[in-house]
Amino acid sequence: MDIILLIKAVIMGIVEGITEFLPISSTGYLILSADIMNFWDKDKVDLFVVVVQLGAILAVIYDYWGRLWQALVGLLTGKADGMSNPRQLGLSLIVATIPVMIVGFTFADEIKAYLFNPITVAIMLIIGGLLIFYVEKRPKEIVAHEAEQISIKTALLIGLFQCLALIPGTSRSGSTIIGALWLGVSRKASAEFSFFLGIPVIVGAALLDLLKHHEVLSSSEDWWVLAVGTVVSFVVALLCIRWLVDWVSRRDFTIFAWLRIITGILVLIATWVFGYQITA
According to the UniProt entry, where is the signal peptide (predicted)? Predict the structure, then answer.
């Protein structure tokens, strides 16, 4: 067993657990981290980057199990105790998931082949940071204070915003949270809806990628490396979820916009000035 490789997997899991629910692009930071550490070969890294996110989204399921279960019951029966409109939440999540599923299933291989590289990540980090500045300064009228109040139309538009996250460096959380804020959803509801929306998207993408590309994991050690990263991401994400909800309820995302832009600029400088090697 390669201990150094396992340590790198732990680091990758920590990066995923911290960044998955922040508007800074977990995929982008995973690609950059893998590139800097020379972590695995490209095919294994591409699979790891997708599957390790499963750990973070399992943390959401664990932490919000009660609300998610009642939303499922509400979707099936039209009612559930303790929630204002559980059926609405279930329907909205289904509708918001459809666009990214269609685009992702159609273009997943092309996206991984041509866009999973540091230059794409850097450019999208900068663009996303500028969009955060714009949305935060834009006047807002709140139309949904809770995730259960998000309408079908708003959910569909959030789902379209989520399609942008297929480009590494954009951020799934960032595109859905900022998109929801733009559409008049409260900060807390935007964050929680983004968390919930990640469940079908990330679980589906991880399982599909494992099914299509499991052969790149050619040894038991490869599976151990993937498992370690996923477990670490679950634990770290579990510690971060409530903190982020509390953060967005009281503060804006300006600090994350600056972090995105500074990171993107540093990567571009490293590439063009210091000869940083791009993983193709």
Answer: none
* Model pLDDT, residue 15: 94
Q: Which amino acid is at 7?
A: I
- 181 contacts: CB under 8 Å, gap ≥ 6: 135, 136, 140, 187, 190
Per-residue pLDDT tens digits for 232-271? 999 999 988 888 778 777 788 899 999 999 999 998 888 7
Sequence spans of domains, the chain: 3-272
Q: Look up the pTM and report it.
A: 0.82
Compute the radius of gyration of the chain from its Cα atoms: 18
Q: CA separation (Å) from 257 to 45, 60, 175, 250?
A: 27, 24, 12, 17
Angle at 236 between CA 11 and CA 12, to 5 degrees: 20
